[in-house]
Amino acid sequence: MPEINIPLVKGQGKSSKTADYVELLPTNIVPIVSEAEGVPGYFRFWPGVTKLADVDGVSRGSHWNTVKDAVYRVMGGKLYLGQSDVSDVPGSGRVSMAHGRTSQAVAVNGELRLYRYDGEVKTVTNWPANEVFPGETKTIQTTQHNKDGDTLKITASNEAGELTLTVTPTNGNNKAGAPLSISESQWSTGVSQTAPAAGTPYLTDLKVSGVKFAGVTLLVTYTFNPNPVTPGSPTDAEKRDASKLVWVQVTQTTTVPNPQYDFTPVGDVCRIRGRYVFAQAGTDTFWLTSLEDESKPDLTAPAYRAENMPDGILAMREYRDFILAFGSSTIEFFRLTGNADNLVQFASSYMVPIGIAGQFCVTEFADSFAFITSPARGQVIVAVMGQGTYSQISDRNTNKILAGYSKAELAGSFVESLKTEDNQFLILHLPRHTLTYNATSGLWCIIKTGLQDGTHRAVDYRNEGDRVTCGDKVAGFLGVQDQTTSAQYGEDQEIILYSPLINYEHGLMFDMQLTANSGLASEVRRIFVSCTADGINYGPERPIEFDGPWQWLRRAIIRKVGQVIIRLGFKLRIVGATPCTLSNLKARIE
Predict the structure, then answer these.
(1) Contact status, residue 127 vs residue 296, Cβ threshold 8 Å
(2) What CATH class does 3-13+493-589 carry?
(3) DSSP-assigned letter for residue 197
(4) Beta pairing class for 477-482 and 162-168
């Protein structure tokens, strides 16, 4: 009798409503591309979740902070750093997060909150409508006469206000005359002193040359008159100029008006080169914060507009020193210019002609971004962004599932990625499904919680090196992935695999055998096998024992399967908490 291998990577069935063929995906078990027992791959259960800590509520978002080298999470109404409560966060919906050198940013309830590492909480607001700068009088330079020339270097700090130079004529005998001052209005015309009594030096024709502008050097010139004790016969000491020059800056109290902007409600946020970048929700405008104070918008040029997003920017990301704006029909790139009057510039050649379904429908994935697309460009798919292009990674079955959701349902979905054990997973959290894509194998599967159809409760996975932590959609739990169990918070879970429909008319099937791990369970475990002849209705389940305490060599086998009338497909179901590895389903047929 010939032996056939029955693939389980993707099952096949029919829709009871449309009669179309459908693909049946593995549930709570992931195809792994790695040779095992003579086959090129095997199935490994999706790891279970155990509780790490009780927290304030369900998970609303997470962010890896490189400054703290740890994960910030918003759970319930609290911001957590690891398991430590940092501060309160208002609202109940999902949040967008970013971080900088001094703060962790959370966009929530239409505002951008900055949770500084020193404990202070700030909100991004406008600069004061009027800033008052008090006047002052200060000495900025005191020197003695330099025979190579007396100068003053103008800088940004001494450029403002009024400069006054006072020169006190002094000779080598330290005999000083009356001080002579010159204001800015007298620099070009000059000032002079009248001759005092003999023996006292004095100055004539004191002038300042140059323009008071930052970077310019002013030159001081004057004539030093020794005025000796013995007229006409000055000594060397009397002729030596040791005059003292004092520069004084006087500034007046000034009031400077600052522009006031309306940048609320705040949507998505990211950070690039010391600035937070945030979208104004419902508009095609995004804003940059100031380098001087990250809780304020840039004073000179804070606002910019996307070129092709009239319905508004949905998400903001930083990518290879570009600012990315995600809309419903395009993805636009903006490069930093280094020009204070125009901080960013649209890079039209990089624009991607497709958009995303909602604010949280995009995530970093495989050195780029993966996202659920918007219906604005036609069929909803899952795609990965390139520079000026994109590539589809969703298959026909995934696209059918996405087509079952309304635009509003898709907008409320969210996407995340997880890299662990050399597998790069993309996780789609939809209202009624949780789908995972493994970039290593290129295959899709379903993960869920409980024995009924539904979604997976764990969310916001973060690989922290020695462990993978996660939040929860249902309860206030901070969890950790557990490779030793498939249970979720102590509850047994269901694993399902389907085979394609096998066409072997009037064939007899014997010795159907599945390679499975054994000897690990604390009690006898069974695989429940059912079959279908039409791809729609599955018959009664037949239990096969495949694991038990110390039963290392147990085989999961059905000696007599039965007759194949026209076609036959199988469904394999396991319920439990013990780790499960399956591969190589085969049978004999004649």
Answers:
(1) yes
(2) mainly beta
(3) S
(4) unpaired
The dihedral formed by the CA atoms of 380, 384, 390 and 395, expressed in degrees to the nearest 10: -50
How much helix, strand and coil, in percent to the nearest 5, is found in the chain? 5, 50, 45
What pLDDT is recorded for position 202? 96
Under 8 Å between Cβ of 417 and 424: yes
With the C-alpha atoms ordered 256, 259, 260, 264, is the resulting torsion angle positive or negative?
Answer: negative
- 3-class secondary structure, 398: helix
- Least Cα distance to 325 among 289, 261, 265, 369 occurs for 369
Sheet containing 390-392, strands listed edge to edge, beginning at the edge strand earlier in sequence: 362-365, 368-372, 382-385, 390-392
Best CA proximity match to 47, nearest among 436, 517, 484, 516? 484
Question: At residue 211, what is the residue type?
Answer: V
CB 43 within 8 A of CB 8: yes
Residue 191 CB partners (closer than 8 Å, separation 6+): 180, 181, 182, 206
Number of alpha carbons in the 13 Å side-chain half-sphere of residue 477 = 20
- For 6-110, list the strands marked E by DSSP: 11-14, 21-24, 29-36, 39-45, 48-54, 59-65, 70-75, 78-81, 84-88, 96-99, 103-108
Write down how long the chain is: 590
Does the predicted model carry a pTM greater than 0.90? Answer: no
CB-based contact 199:265 (threshold 8 Å): no
Contact in structure between 34 and 51 (CB atoms under 8 Å): no
| Average pLDDT of span 302-307 | 96
Q: Give the tens place of pLDDT for each residue, 485-529.
A: 999 999 999 999 999 998 888 788 888 888 877 656 556 578 899
pLDDT of residue 519: 56
E strand or H helix that includes residue 363 = strand 362-365
Cβ within 8 Å of residue 457, ≥6 positions away: 49, 449, 472, 473, 474, 488
Query: How far apart, in whole angstroms, are the C-alpha atoms of residue 430 and residue 420?
Result: 22
Structure token pair of residue 92: 């109940």
Domain residue extents for the chain: 3-13+493-589, 135-252
Establish whether the linkage from the previous residue to 265 is cis, with ω within 30° of 0. yes
SS3 call for 403? helix
CA-wise closest residue to 462 among 100, 86, 71:
71
Mean pLDDT of 29-53: 88
